[in-house]
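Just wondering, does anyone understand what follows?

——
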Amino acid sequence: MNFIPLISLAVALAMDAFAVAVAVGIGLKRVNSRQMFRLAWHFGLFQALMPVIGWFSGVKVRGVVASFDHWVAFVLLAFVGGKMLWEAFSGDDESVDEGKDPTRRMSLVILSVATSIDALAVGFSMSVLDVSIALPAVVIGLTASVFTLIGMQLGCRFSSSSRVGHWAGVAGGVVLIAIGLHILMEHGVFG
């Protein structure tokens, strides 16, 4: 695979991770280096591993998974986005504590899987095209990590205004749900 198409592919795949990272940054209000590392590491790792898994799975499983992968991504993103909306409207305007930190525990895994489902399909495609997966997986993972770091910083800066506070959490939840709906639209679910 040539360098320019590979970078373009990596950037395209990193857009979901970037958008989710912005939403997480908004929700957290203050982001520390541990949270940034956890989210960037996991998003990058999952973005790198999913194409490898897809590549090894090959053509046999492609038809089965392709029929519902968009629904899996939508449900995961809608769940996390809905949770953010619930917390925004529940009256808890405090900064996110450890129990609500989306860079920890199951929320981190759910977000990592949801943002990397498309990379699984890319791995399937590369397998069909008989393209080596090693370099693309590394480039995709590193790009996702970098975009995640940038997204968290932007989200955090956006939410630092006390006027934004509550509505930033609402916006973050809406963005996650919108990403899920966009994935469904890309797969022709709405017509």
Confidence is low (pLDDT under 50) at residues 92-99. Helices lie at 3-28, 33-66, 69-89, 105-128, 134-159, 165-186.
